[in-house]
Write a structure and sequence with these properties.
With about 300 residues, the chain is an alpha+beta fold. Helix content is about 30%, strand content about 20%. The chain contains five helices and 15 strands. Strands 1, 2, 4 and 5 form a four-stranded antiparallel beta sheet that branches. The protein starts with about 25 loop residues before the first helix and ends with a strand. Bound molecules: 2-amino-4-trifluoromethylsulfanyl-butyric acid and cobalt (II) ion. The site of 2-amino-4-trifluoromethylsulfanyl-butyric acid has 12 residues, from strand 4.
Length: about 300
Amino acid sequence: MTYDGLPNPGRNDECWCGSGKKYKKCHRDLDERLEELAAQGLELLPRSLLKTAADIEGIKVSAEVNVGALDYVAERIGVGTTTEEIDQWVYNYCIEHDAIPADLNYEGFPKSVCTSINEVVCHGIPCSEDVLKEGDIVNVDMSTIKGGYFSDSSRMFCIGEVDPEWRRLVDVTRESVQAGLAAVKPWGFLGDVSAAVNKVATDAGFTVVREFGGHGIGLEFHEDPWVGFNEEAGTGPVLVPGMCFTIEPMVNMGGQDIDMSDPNGWTVRTADGLPTAQWEVQLVVTETGYELLSW
Ligand code: MF3
Ligand code: CO
């Protein structure tokens, strides 16, 4: 029996990953290493979550649409844009690229994208009344299904002239994601990524939301692991080549607390009403580090 209950093929049998290669030429060395780490008591995700080469190709096709949709938004967004228009842009972009917006109808979410303005932490619902104005900061969080594969990323947009402290919040949050990416090392820990993100945000005097985090992604929208950004380095699951997940911290200018009482059941705000920012990237862990898939 293996650590995750999956059978191990014989040396000359086909690998479990579907590559068609012999086990000994494919995942056997990796599996042996995983067994050793499991024997040491380290936290490991089941191998069923590790993406195969074919999965990663499929995720890249999906991510190309996701990135393209956000680029499309970036070229058009500005003073006077309504979040309803953003929703229509990304919906049409997906349909024209043989893709489906993953947000649409996800657990009842009514729109194709999340648009979170100023003090909205996440899950803002696009609507025609939300008109972007000079000085706003807005997160556009986009997720795509194409060929059965999921991709997910989000960006901040500064509308016109933005208060320098608000712009610093946006910039520091982006830098925190870069620091998280730099901490992605095969055979390191997910907590290393979390700690790297958290340090950049908190050293700058900001706070990091506890209730929401990143997630595994690929064959499903939200897979294990959950990726919190208030964790300690050297803790959590081991990072293994083939793991695919997002880094998406929500960073608050003021306090850490959030308000989830909006009657629409989705929109999350900062408890103190101060602004908040988020950037999201999707990556796959490789033998040497990571490959960025969506941004
Ligand atoms: N895109 C979000 C994430 O980063 C999830 C949004 S779910 C929705 O995980 F239903 F609000 F769209
Ligand atoms: Co996400």
